[in-house]
Amino acid sequence: MFRIFSTASSRSSRFTNTDELAAVDLGSNSFHLIIARCENGQLRIIDRLREMVQLGAGLDQDCNLSSAAEEKALDCLRRFGQRLCEIPDSNVRIVGTSALRRMANGELFLEKAEHALNHGIEIISGIEEARLIYLGVAHSTGSEGVQRLVIDIGGGSTEIILGSGFETGYMESLRMGCVSVSKLYFSQGELGKRNLQNAILSVRIKLDGILQQDNKLDWQEVIGASGSVRAIARVVQAQGWCEEGISFSAMKKLRKLLFEYNHVDDLEFDGLEKQRREVFAGGFAILYGLFKSLSLEHMHIADGSLREGVLYDLSGRLQHEDVRERTVSAMSKRYGIDQAQAQRVANSALDLYEQVATYWELNDEEHLNLLLWASRLHEAGLAIAHSGYHKHGSYLAANADMPGFSRQEQAILAALIRGHRRRFPASVLKSLPAGLRSSTARLCVLLRLAVRLNRSRTDSDQVKPGIKIKDEKVRLSFPADYLSTRELTQAELDQEAGLLQEAGWTLCIMQEPPENLDCRTSF
What is the pTM of this model? Predict the structure, then answer.
């Protein structure tokens, strides 16, 4: 589930040097909390919390979460929640990755998890995870213009990213991580030469299939991130096989050492933490497969990763540098959207929103953002076909790689675009988590009205009607005689009233003198 929490301060306001920002990474192996303060235009980390929850290990073959794993995770989140209680929700961003993407009973768990944290949780796609990982790595290693290959091995997925400076190019998210590979090839903790070789071979087979499609990858520097990579680096350096980072020669020596062990409980050598034993071989198999398939000779290690990337992305949103805005602009251009018409609809939607936001409890700026982004993208489906273009546009919003957007945010956009014309999308709204349905339905009504009001597709005919609302009742008030000279607009609104009535809404159209058009109060 995804909730948009009301905030005392606007998310778009600039934060001060005294403000704390917090990012939480709910990974498949570990949960991380990181808190920073802005000092002289830079983020300084002031606190970190980390617990190896192993959420991914608590999923059975049908991706149901065990009660023991759930309670372990919630205990951790309650502790995190105590640390977050003094930080405004607008300054907190919490993301869930592979295990939460795959969890069959995820909505129920997320409801409990959000209650434990007292903050909303975003489930992000593998590609969005890759983008945020790269952002964290780039900020922790400097922004030199060399082409970087960044590799992050998490509990349930492995991200491979090419980029330069702070900008990403190629991104790939593979469904294999230290937890999932360990469960598959080292069940009951059994190691041995054959099991390790089979795990490495499976990784290489999956990688080779991708590399055959993307054979133009090129880089000047290789950087590794995440717990598995850092754990391997600590081991090879403790053994004296490598002074900095991880070399391929050190990886071969470590493989030979692992061949000698028959069980993960027996893994006792310098540099390896006890709590890392259970998933160490799985992470090693992935990294060794990457070294072989990509012909890597040496890998540097980054301090930053996903949680740092989330933190810097949140900082950007607060400083009016929201990557989601760039994503919407890029999609508008890619699908040839009529920019002037999109802006007309957005202007009308904004005017309606400002009149009803308080009474419809749409006070969070994220509500407004989603309404305006949907306004700008509502005609994206025309790039495919005019017939059913609202359905085509909805599909694009739901399934496209949209940097900066969580899965829940894309689901809301898709529902709004799907519902901006024709029948009200009751069935689509029911597919959303319960906590999203009411606000999304209200945003959808505003978008539908904004589209109807701009049927003429001209600037000269724009009008700002007054609007009154009460629950599912809506009254639009126009200047006297305005509709009498615009038969098409009147017909559009009459048709809309009928469609909304089918869905349990009431739309009343009024014509009043200009002095009576300030309709910012409820019925």
Answer: 0.85
